[in-house]
Every structure is written in structure tokens, then in C-alpha cells.
Design a protein that fits this description.
This protein is mostly beta strands. Helices cover 0% and strands 35% of the residues.
């Protein structure tokens, strides 16, 4: 078995992660391709550059520090 990223061809962003058995006959959806990510810490939302084979993590969410608790 191997782990693959399912990547949108238009955006080069990983839309899904799947596990395939060796020799499995599976075709990604239209406008998508797959890349083996065995041993990599890659997941949904990561960007992939097929020319350099480099992955980029999505930006961290911004969490405001000055949020007040609601009062009842």
C-alpha cells in the first residue's frame, strides 16, 4: 500500500489523500492527478510544484488574541 495526494490540476493544491494497494487500477477525477507521498508530512490544502516536486503548507489560520468572552 502507498499513500497518494490527489491534486487539482488547475490549482496544484491537494484536495484529498488516498491509500492504494500496489497495482491498483484507479483513475483520479477529471482535472486531478496523483503524487506518491509515502513518508512525507503532506495533506489536504498543501500546494505542490510539479516542476520542483516541492510541497508548501497552507498558511496558518490567524487567531485573534483580543477576543472578549461573551457576557450573558
Amino acid at each position: 500500500m502507498s499513500i497518494y495526494a490527489v491534486i487539482n490540476s488547475d490549482t496544484n493544491i491537494c484536495d484529498n489523500v488516498i491509500v492504494l494497494d500496489e497495482g491498483a487500477m484507479w483513475t483520479p477525477p477529471a482535472s486531478h492527478y496523483i503524487v506518491n507521498i509515502d513518508g512525507l508530512e503532506v495533506g489536504i490544502g498543501f500546494s505542490y510544484d510539479p516542476a520542483t516536486q516541492v510541497w508548501t503548507a497552507p498558511p496558518e489560520p490567524v487567531i485573534p488574541l483580543d477576543v472578549e468572552e461573551p457576557t450573558s
